[in-house]
Amino acid sequence: MDKLTAMQVFSCVAEQGNYAAAAHQFNISRTMVSKHINQLEGYLGVKLINRTTRQQALSESGLLYYQECKTILAAITAAENTLQTMTGTVSGIIKINAPVSFGNAVLAPIVNRFLLQYPQVDVDLRLDNNLIDPLLDNVDVLVRIGELEDSALIGRHIMNYDMQFCASPQYLDTHPDICSNTDLSDHQCLGFSYSTNGSLSVAHQQIFGKRHFRLSSNSGVVLTQAAIDGLGVVLQPSIVLKEAIEAGLLVSIASLTPPETMPIHLLYKDKNLPLKTRSLIEFIVAQLADH
């Protein structure tokens, strides 16, 4: 039994309340999660989790053991961070969560350059438009678009997020003129599937309201290509549309008023960051200094 991994998996189950979340976080099967828990229980001689067909709840012994696991795992992390700082060696795994379009267009190339510069670092980059709970999910750095709500997280502004309307030259030549946002009701539009409670979702709904879309997707790349192919008007971040506009494949529709510009922040849980995480954050900030 890998006791350390088993403790990490058990702690995740304790925090998330189910095996599926732990399986997703550690990229293992639910059967393997169950195996880790069973091995711990067999080794300790006590039941840590009371299981039913619908949920899992910590036993009294499980709650006590979870508190001790948290202390031990935090101490191990602190020791690793201290050694890395002393030696100046940037190494380890960094877990990042970011929105899909921003992650594809901006963050992924920066992460690739970071990995080339720091060969002893591994990055787990998850692109997701749903808002995860950073205090529960095992993630080191999050990217969030929009004004920040009060939270225990620390935020660092990295750039602003502006959007614009575009369509292909062929579409604009063969459809009625677009003079204002109210004219969109007479046009084919492409819809972005944001998380249900995100700032971008609110902005998108304010522009388009409840209407039929020829194509909806959570990928700005998909919608940009659809606009290039003449399927309609797209509202996307300038960073996603930039290359297509410069190539003449899309035309910015200046008569339309996009949503207000929103800030983009990197979020993390603690000021005392591991060297690996601090190095990544500084690298991202430096790469985006001109934006």
From TrEMBL:
One of its GO terms (molecular function) is DNA-binding transcription factor activity. Residues 1-59 form the HTH lysR-type domain. Keywords: DNA-binding, Transcription, Transcription regulation. It comes from the Bacteria. It holds the Pfam family LysR_substrate. SUPFAM superfamilies: Periplasmic binding protein-like II, Winged helix' DNA-binding domain. The keyword DNA-binding applies. InterPro entries: LysR-type_TF_proteobact-type, LysR_HTH_N, LysR_subst-bd, WH-like_DNA-bd_sf, WH_DNA-bd_sf. Belongs to the LysR transcriptional regulatory family. This is LysR family transcriptional regulator. It comes from Shewanella livingstonensis.
